[in-house]
Design a protein that fits this description.
The protein contains 21 helices and 4 strands. By secondary structure, the protein is mainly α. The strands form 2 sheets. Strands 1-2 form a two-stranded antiparallel ribbon. A two-stranded antiparallel ribbon has the order 3-4. It is elongated. The structure holds zinc ion.
Length: about 450
Amino acid sequence: MRAVLKITAGVVLVLVLALVAAWLADRPGTIAVDWLGYRIETSVGVLIAIVLLLGAVLAALARLVLIASRGPRVLAARRRLKRRQAADRALVRGLVAVAAGDARDAKKQAIAAEGATDGSPLSLLLAAQAAQLNGDMAAAERAYNLMLENEETKFLGLRGLIVLARRKGDNDTALARAREAQALRPGAPWVASEIFGLQAALGEWRAAEETLNGALRHKLIEGARGKRHRAVVQLGQVDAALARGDEAEALSLAESAHALAPDLVPGTVRLARLLAGVGKRKKADRLLENAWVQQPHPDLAETYAAIVPDLSEEDRARRLETLAAINPSTRESRLLAAEQALTLRRWAEAREALMVLVTNHEATRRTYDLLAELERREKGDQRRAAEWQEKAMTGEAEARWFCHVCGHSPKAWSPHCPSCHSFDSLEWRMPGAIGEILPPPAAPADGTLPAAEVARIGG
Ligand SMILES: [Zn+2]
């Protein structure tokens, strides 16, 4: 349609020009101009041609001037776009390098991003993460501190500083920063759990319990987990009370903790010892026996023997035999029974209990060690004993306490890991189970941020 209109307009223009030319040709004449002592004489047709030509030249000149004046702005915009693209590329590559743990590339991209953006909030975050990955804590701290100056990145800066302080073992600074973060975002579950964990690590159990109750009230922590946390906090208070020599306080706290988490073995053990300490032996026995039915654990057996003072070796063995008999078909009960049978020199019984474990493929190092001891003591068979001993060397190790955050394996349970101070991180399991191969699921120990957090502020 437009093409048709264009052609029509062209035809009309040519017709009009032809008419004008014909009209001028019919009316010849000259025009004379006197100007500055010059006299120009020409025909009307030539004059019109000159005027048209001049007009065209002026229009072309004006267009050139316009392009020349707009040029720098267009070029600058193009340069800005290129810089921005380079910055975006460096940021993305840098964050990927951080996620991949590639310290050198992360640093390279961080420098590129910072140069291209003049220190945008996201480039500061990348700089901090890259510095942390390179082990340059001072540079990471500088970057996080710069992030505090911007309202949008202040929270993330605080988060980075908290993690750095915690890694330095400076829990007081970490707690102060966590309180700042809480003032900024009172509803953030991470801050509440951080404050709680720091108070627990500092042994401020009462304050920790208040933080926990607050988190429960605001539903920042799920009910079942909150209950377990409260039980562990109260066990921390039990240990503190025992250290002060306040056994009455310790007992009431241990009772409360046991009511909150009846399956927590360290709680059961503490309560049983405290009950026995105030003459409630029968109650302590029942408590340990019930726990043994639920979940046989060596600490329960040890406590069961320890709460009766001045037992002879045989009496101790007979008492532990009754505990094993309550839940006889579990691995822990068979081992306990075999140990007591060895002490009481009832060889056939010991052999039977141990061989069931071997047949059931439930034998661990402790099983083979006991079999070796049996061969030596019953028949003096050193050769057989050596064979079992060899199996013990390669056999599966016994279950132990393991920190699921740092992998540390302390001798005894405590409310937080003695190595990394993580709260309630100790679990009873066999070594070499899956947790040791895979990294911990949340809150990377090196303080780098989970991808979701990066994506949130990157947008
Ligand atoms: Zn740990």
